[in-house]
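Most newcomers find our protein records easier to grasp once they have seen one. A learned vocabulary of local backbone shapes supplies the integers on the structure line. Here is such a record, shown just as it appears in the course material:
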Amino acid sequence: MIASTFPIIPCSTEETIAKETGLNVIIDKHGVKKLAEEVIEFMSDNKYTSCTRQLPKFYPSFFDIKAGDWLFLLHTLNFSLWIPNSTKQWTVNNYTGFWALCAAIKRAIDDNKLIWDPNYYMTITPTEMKYIFRGDDEIILPYLEERRIILHRVGKILKKKYGGLFINCIRESEYDADKLMKILFKFESYQDEIMFRGKPIRLYTKAKLLISDLQTYFPISSKSSIKTSTLLKDYRAVQVLLHFGAIRYTENLQLLLRICAVALKERDAQRRSTERTEMELGRSGAEVQSSAVECYYGGVG
């Protein structure tokens, strides 16, 4: 495992990027207000507050002692769950994408498989991986072997440095979100880091998603900057912002994004034909972001 030499930029990463790309993404105050009203109405109708949160169907129960390690496993494997340019996708119990992954892990745990335990998955075999993540219609989970290698790596780090359990990472962070983000960055698959206009940018995307889920199960200390540490957006949220008119793209940016999409499809086809992969394992969503930035500022190549 190679430690990063990039310093953490003290100001908000999102603010840094927004300042330098503001001419291409327009924030519409009327659209923002419209979306805010929709969210407030939804939360009011469903009795949501800052202190309540629904547990997804395939998540651990509130008092499950496995919750921390379970969620760490889930988010570590949450990347590239779709098969590009395919009419058939990997499904589990008819769920696709992230929810299929959740369903597969829940199914394994219900079958008394110790998939949540780093001491188990640090030596997990290809046969065990194939069985645990078996899909409907015999469709195989994309990048199954790469995921197995990732589990071996993170499992060994947890065994060596944290007593073989991710919950010990949470304890070491003193339940502080900022500290936990920095601990997570020690794991290669959580190093969402790119060069943006010559500057190192840490996205912390996977770490933020994991911490957001962990909030439901573990207390965060008052000294933690929770309002900034867990600010994140699902990548599909951009579609919501566009739909409500909260943001608008210039025609130039729309064209460049379409070019990037075509370039990524062509690159994926080339990978399959040569049976090679260049993806940075486990960096969920970071490849898409970095590819878009790279295409936009460095040209498509």
Summary: The first helix runs from residue 13 to 21.
